[in-house]
Amino acid sequence: MIVFFTFLNRFNVASPPSTTATTVIVDVISDVICPWCYIGKRRLEKAIAALDGQHEVPVHWHFFISNQLNPTMPKEGISRQEYRTRKSGSWEQSLELDGKVIAVGKLNESILPLTRWNEP
Fold first, then answer.
1. How would DSSP label each residue in 55-69?
2. pLDDT at residue 59, rounded to an integer
3. Cα–Cα distances in Å, from 32 out to 18, 35, 40, 69?
4. pLDDT exceeds 50 at position 4
């Protein structure tokens, strides 16, 4: 997930002249099937909620197209186990990485649909 922030200050007419409100425009480029991107999305939502409405934070989502992420992937695809083995070095390493994603997801209270992740 790639995140770009743009900060804009604007005069708040409802407040004293010394008060300005900040608009933070957030552009996010994300892979919709990436669990790390989902965790990042949840963290961003929590950060925005923590501002408690003090600032305007419009979020603009931009998504990768699958062939942008892996242009060498055959159109017919390959098995998940083969893909993850190539990417991680071994199937065992892939499963270890999945465990890390699950642990971080639990820490961030992210509900990840991982029930089928470890199937080849």
1. SB--EEEEE--HHHH
2. 92
3. 42, 8, 11, 11
4. yes
User: What does pTM read for this prediction?
Assistant: 0.68
pLDDT recorded at residue 120: 47
Yes or no: say if 61 and 74 are a contact pair by the CB < 8 Å rule.
no
Q: For residues 41 and 1, is the Cβ–Cβ distance under 8 A? A: yes
Contact 4, 27 (CB under 8 A): yes
Amino acid 110: pLDDT = 62
- Name the amino acid, one letter, at 58: P
- CA distance linking residue 32 with residue 44, whole number of Å: 15
pLDDT band, residue 38 (cuts 50/70/90): confident
Q: Which residues contact 80 (CB under 8 A, 6 or more apart)?
A: 119, 120
Q: How buried is 34 (Cβ within 10 angstroms: 0-12 exposed, 13-18 middle, 19+ buried)?
A: middle
Please choose, from the candidates 112, 119, 113, the residue with its C-alpha nearest in 3D space to the C-alpha of residue 79. 119
